[in-house]
Amino acid sequence: MKVTAGKKAPATPARKPSVKTSEKPKKTAPEPFTCGIGPAFEVIGGKWKAVILWELHTEARRFGELRRLVPDISEKMLIQQLREMEADGIVHRLVFHEVPPRVEYSTTELGKSLNDALAPLADWGDRYAQRG
């Protein structure tokens, strides 16, 4: 504090501490899609979902099997992707109540139809990768 001619200078007002809120910004309503690509990519978008879906197309798989079949994915990401795919209705999770506990993942009818729709895209990708 400054002292001027025997008087104390007025104290500066204390700053209010900045408070961070955990509120997320409100989402605006999604814009309507102009074609079916938008909704399809909302379900299958990202790096891993199509790969996981492909690994489930022939038979039900346990979590450990999927982890080995998709070696570059982290365990956390695999869990997250499987949960999202289950919520979207393209993967079914079957829990066997036994010791040790066992869980199997398989494609639903919707998942099978999505896998069928992705096959031509995979063929295109193969041709694209082999171009000279």
Features:
132 residues; alpha+beta; Arc Repressor Mutant, subunit A; three-stranded antiparallel sheet; two-stranded antiparallel sheet; 5 strands; globular
Polypeptide structure, described:
- The chain has 132 residues and is an alpha+beta fold.
- 44% of the residues lie in helices and 14% in strands.
- The chain contains 5 helices and 5 strands.
- It has helices at residues 37-44, 49-56, 63-69, 75-87, 109-130, and strands at residues 3-4, 7-8, 61-62, 91-96, 102-107.
- The radius of gyration is 27 Å and the shape is globular.
- The mean pLDDT is 84.
Concise structural overview:
The chain is of the alpha+beta class. Helices cover 44% and strands 14% of the residues.
The CATH H-level superfamily of the domain at 41-122 is Winged helix-like DNA-binding domain superfamily/Winged helix DNA-binding domain
One letter per element, helices H and strands E, the order comes to EEHHEHHEEH
The percent range for strand residues is 5-15%
> So, CATH architecture of the domain at 41-122?
Orthogonal Bundle
Rg, Å, rounded = 27 Å
**Total DSSP helices:** 5
Topology:
Layout: E1 3-4, E2 7-8, H1 37-44, H2 49-56, E3 61-62, H3 63-69, H4 75-87, E4 91-96, E5 102-107, H5 109-130
Antiparallel strand pairs: 1-2, 3-5, 4-5
